[in-house]
Predict the 3D structure of the following.
Amino acid sequence: MDTITPLRVPRLAWATLGLVAAVVCGWAIEAIPPAQVNPTLLGAVAFLGVWIPLLAALTLCFAKQRLSETLAFLGLRFQPLDALWGLGIGCLGRAFDAFLRMVLTGSGGLVLQPTLSALASPVVQTIVLGILAPVVIAPVIEEIYFRGLIQRSLAAALEPLGRAPRWAAAVVLTSLAFALVHALLLIGTPNEAMLTGISTFIFALLAGTTAAATNRLGGSIAGHIVFNGLGVLLTWPV
């Protein structure tokens, strides 16, 4: 049974504004010379500068709803089978990323990626900013925002198309937005941004399809954790 409620136009408007604000904040933080700011503080601000606009948009979207209604709309549920879904799509997405980089660059991309979080040190800060933030917190926030808020709102808006077409369109459009935001926020060369955009788009298709097929976010969140976790593991400095 489809649990999507009728679209409230402000939700997509707030979601769009949240993405724009996150990108602008990310760019502003990237422009700060690292030598002028404590590296640990800069790493924390880099994450918070993106997360806060997204969390603010989510709050504005559901400010007048009960928590149970919000969780139902977002599909924020988890079942044991979602762990298997997550392992599958996370590994598949990371394998595609490695294959793409090998074909186009001759390297699997197994080098420390140039992100602000890599500036954090020593041990405690590295665990929080290098592992906890990208592997646990970011996947939860991003899946709630993209596969929960945006994808499910788009599916509701496209209801006249019929169930299968509207969900397919919602998955593709949400995946494009997901990939674009990640490419725009990347600190690196245009080629790296392109590769990141392609690989995150493919992963987003897998996550979005899983969320649509299961009607919940458990599998996509687990997959995002696996995808990011493998990325951190394979690029961890030795």
